[in-house]
Specification:
single chain, 169 residues, alpha+beta, Jelly Rolls, globular, metal-binding, RmlC_Cupin_sf, dioxygenase, oxidoreductase activity, acting on single donors with incorporation of molecular oxygen, incorporation of two atoms of oxygen
Length: 169
């Protein structure tokens, strides 16, 4: 089996698993946990992206759309982070699940008053899910190598332009 076939098969299985999780009709927090279980089962490898996509960009972290469900109920996006790249502090329009497939991603968690309440280094294979409220965070690549993660959002982010609801200073 070729790498392309393996990547396509993994994405097909992941999308089917996400459909099943969403079909449980849980609240957003429950859905995030059910989708996280599916991502753990079907976490792709970096070869889900082309070699060129895995390089990222020197300007900012890059996103690559891997799948958008036809009814707009979810999107699967790959994010590629060069060393030092980071997001602004933000929250989300819907539930979100992510899994690291290469490198390390550091996450800072904040309360509603923007007090730092937690930090974690997410390594290859780590999967986490969350939903508003209580989803204010910032993600960055603190290592000296490229990091890649798979993010699943409970909406068509290509239609709305971003998964972020608000940015904080």
């Amino acid at each position: 089996m070729t790498t392309t076939t393996t990547s396509t098969s993994t994405l097909t299985d992941l999308a089917a698993g996400v459909r099943t999780a969403i079909g449980e009709h849980a609240d957003w927090h429950g859905t995030a946990q059910l989708v996280a279980e599916q991502l753990r089962r079907h976490l792709p490898t970096p070869d889900v992206l082309t070699a060129e996509q895995r390089l990222g960009s020197a300007d900012r972290y890059r996103s690559h759309t891997l799948h958008v469900e036809p009814d707009g109920s979810f999107s699967i996006i790959a994010l590629v982070w060069q060393p030092g790249q980071l997001t602004r502090i933000h929250d989300h329009v819907t539930w979100c699940v992510f899994g690291v497939i290469q490198g390390v991603e550091h996450e800072d968690l904040y309360d509603a008053d923007l007090n730092l309440i937690g930090q974690s280094d997410n390594h290859v294979g780590d999967v986490s899910g969350f939903a508003p409220p209580g989803d204010i965070h910032r993600v960055n690549n603190t290592s000296d190598t490229t990091a890649i993660s798979i993010h699943i959002y409970g909406t068509d982010v290509t239609r709305i332009g971003s998964s972020a609801r608000r940015y904080y200073n």
